[in-house]
């Protein structure tokens, strides 16, 4: 069954059957196949009151009721519906009058198919954004969640988090991308899954971490290929965009995407279509994209690393998850949840948490966030010998030890260190020292090291090659 576009019909009003037929053919040739044709302008108001329409295309000179008078009635009853005048009346005063009465645009017959389609696309986009803004405002002002069960895995009672849940409910049904940012371990994929569950989409939730993909692997994985597209392509392969059709494609670590891959994905988002490798036949984009990164927004705004046009395209909707240290009131709730989970998994009774241990944990900055807290709790439960957790058996997962990551000891020491140096290192020396230290802390993992340094893995690899050549 052919998919209808747009979601609700476009109402085309003209008293001449041949003109209606011509407009129908023109719009269908441009991909608009959800149309309602009406030759009697007197029926239009009742149609709009009974049924939902995306837009109206309206002639001016019609018997019984002129288009400019009908425009007034439409705007009085349905001010949210964009009305495009499509007429043979080449009159500047009439055009100005219609625009003042609320018409979205004024097109003269004969109008080129591509001009008509472009105007209608703009009108639909304006209407969609207006509906989304209205829905978002209503949701945020309502103060309640319609589907709290969707967020069951995101344990919280923090007001800021609950506001994010309401925002997620408001934008989940949008076709536009969602950018989810936050430190490692804050629950970005859980939020992405919640957005998918709320979207009403019947397709799959498909997750892909793109950090380790080069340009070729990225294109093949996302777009797929036809047989013979490249050496070794003996069979056609469907990409993840096709696998997620009707559902959600979640791209994690979007901040590590190369500039070349950014350009390819930007085109897909703009044109709403993609080409499998080796094919010149486009496939429609039917997946909704949700992307995530643990990099800060300043990094994503660096044109040398991230294209500004791509950044703003994926940031249509933005959810930033706060780190655990900014939502400490959730700590007892999370600890209790993980205690029960760990005890159940280890076939033990849930142990008690001494107040001294809770106080100690509350002073910890949790650089690994909720994922680190879970690891700490599971380790303590496994090591527990009785029904009370022993604070002395707390094993910190941070390699630097707790002293450097307790909030009460946390401070910016770099200026003091520099002032105590007899000689400042050169930029080349400082860069080499920082890279060596990042690799030491990450135990040689270049991806983690690049994250510590605030650069992409590709940039770190390039710098390492330069250091080897020195």
Overall SS class: alpha/beta
N-to-C span? 63 Å
Helical content stands at 40-55%
Shape: elongated
Spatial ordering of strands, largest sheet: 2-1-3-4-5
Indicate the proportion of strand residues.
Answer: 5-15%
Flag low-confidence runs: 398-411
- Give the mean pLDDT: 87
The major β-sheet equals: 5 strands, parallel
Number of strands: 14
Cα radius of gyration in angstroms: 29 Å
Count of runs of 4 or more consecutive helical residues? 19
In short:
With 470 residues, this protein is an alpha/beta fold.
State the main characteristics.
470 residues, alpha/beta, 5-stranded parallel β-sheet, 19 helices, 14 strands
């Amino acid at each position: 069954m052919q998919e209808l576009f747009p979601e609700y019909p476009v109402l085309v009003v003209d008293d001449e059957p041949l003109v209606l037929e011509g407009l129908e053919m023109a719009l269908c040739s441009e991909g608009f196949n959800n149309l309602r044709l009406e030759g009697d302008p007197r029926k239009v108001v009742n149609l709009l009151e009974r049924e939902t329409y995306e837009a109206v295309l309206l002639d001016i000179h019609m018997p019984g009721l002129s288009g400019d008078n009908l425009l007034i009635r439409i705007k009085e009853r349905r001010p949210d519906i964009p009305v495009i005048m499509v007429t043979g009346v080449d009159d500047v005063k009439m055009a100005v009058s219609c625009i003042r009465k609320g018409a979205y645009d004024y097109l003269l017959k004969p109008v080129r198919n591509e001009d008509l389609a472009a105007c209608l696309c703009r009108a639909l986009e304006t209407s969609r954004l207006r509906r989304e803004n209205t829905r978002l405002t209503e949701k945020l002002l309502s103060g309640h969640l319609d589907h709290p069960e969707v967020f069951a895995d995101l344990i919280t009672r923090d007001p800021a988090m609950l506001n994010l849940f309401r925002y997620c409910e408001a934008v989940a049904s949008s076709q536009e991308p969602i950018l989810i940012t936050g430190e490692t371990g804050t629950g970005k994929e859980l939020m992405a899954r919640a957005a998918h569950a709320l979207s009403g989409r019947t397709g799959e939730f498909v997750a892909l971490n793109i950090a380790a993909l080069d340009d070729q692997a990225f294109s093949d994985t996302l777009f797929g290929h036809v047989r013979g597209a490249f050496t070794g392509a003996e069979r056609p392969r469907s990409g993840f965009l096709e696998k997620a059709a009707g559902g959600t494609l979640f791209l994690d670590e979007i901040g590590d995407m190369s500039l070349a891959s950014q350009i390819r994905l930007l085109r897909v988002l703009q044109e709403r279509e993609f080409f499998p490798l080796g094919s010149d036949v486009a496939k429609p984009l039917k997946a909704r994209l949700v992307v995530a990164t643990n990099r800060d927004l300043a990094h994503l705004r660096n044109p040398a690393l991230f294209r500004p046009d791509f950044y703003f395209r994926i940031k249509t909707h933005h959810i930033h998850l706060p780190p655990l240290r900014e939502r400490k009131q959730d700590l007892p709730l999370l600890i209790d949840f993980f205690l029960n989970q760990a005890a159940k998994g280890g076939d033990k009774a849930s142990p008690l948490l001494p107040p001294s241990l809770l106080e100690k944990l509350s002073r910890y900055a949790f650089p690994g966030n909720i994922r680190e807290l879970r690891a700490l709790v599971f380790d303590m439960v496994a090591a527990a010998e009785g029904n009370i957790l022993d604070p002395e058996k707390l094993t910190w997962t941070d390699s630097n030890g707790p002293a450097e990551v307790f909030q009460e000891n946390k401070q910016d020491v770099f200026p003091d260190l520099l002032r105590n140096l007899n000689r400042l290192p050169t930029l080349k020396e400082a860069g080499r020292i920082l890279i060596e230290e990042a690799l030491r802390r990450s135990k040689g993992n270049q991806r983690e090291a690049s994250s510590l340094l605030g650069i992409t893995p590709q940039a770190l690899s390039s710098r390492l090659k330069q250091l080897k050549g020195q």
